[in-house]
Write a structure and sequence with these properties.
The protein is of the alpha+beta class. The chain has one domain: Gcn5-related N-acetyltransferase (GNAT) (Aminopeptidase). It is globular.
Length: 165
């Protein structure tokens, strides 16, 4: 199995829209609906200067959407004790056949390792899954993240997950 990340392009929009309209995904991403809703996210929060969006592929098959960002430059920094160069990530496993197999934990570990390798000043990678998303929290824990606290964000109660270098 070969996993790779590539930058999101406009050609990926319909694929991401389809994933966002999966009820299991929408439960936590809350971006189901018309194409314009996902486009607004992709050209808004996901396109901020401190954020990069990627499609994850296994053996060339698109199977995940990633947002990798500087958490210390994100609005999230106002909700936890951020330190300089904190990295952050969001993950969506698209097709249902890629969920529930332990793959999320494996990929989260690989991407966090790469983030830490790419930026020597980064000492932590953080994530903030919804506290109701037990499967996601377990995947982060299996990937070496630790649930440090729960935080109240405007849109959700989140488990602050931290992976230290």
């Amino acid at each position: 199995m070969t996993f790779a990340l590539r930058p999101v392009t406009e050609a990926d929009t319909d694929l991401i829209v389809a994933w966002m309209n999966d009820p299991d995904v929408d439960q936590f991403w809350e971006l189901a609906g018309p194409r314009e809703r996902t486009v607004e996210h992709l050209t808004g929060p996901a396109a901020l200067p401190h954020t990069s969006s990627y499609i994850g592929e296994i053996d060339g098959v698109p199977m995940s959407y990633w947002e990798i960002y500087r958490a210390d430059q994100d609005r999230l920094a106002g909700y936890y004790p951020a330190i300089a160069y904190d990295g952050g990530l969001h993950l969506l496993l698209g097709p249902a056949e890629f969920r529930g197999r332990g793959l999320g934990a494996q990929l989260l570990r690989q991407v966090a390792d790469q983030m830490l390798a790419d930026e020597p000043r980064m000492t932590r990678v953080v994530a903030e899954p919804d506290v109701r998303n037990v499967r996601s929290i377990r995947a982060f824990e299996r990937a070496g993240f630790r649930r440090t606290t729960d935080i109240e964000l405007p849109e959700k109660r989140a488990a602050l997950m931290v992976r230290v270098r």
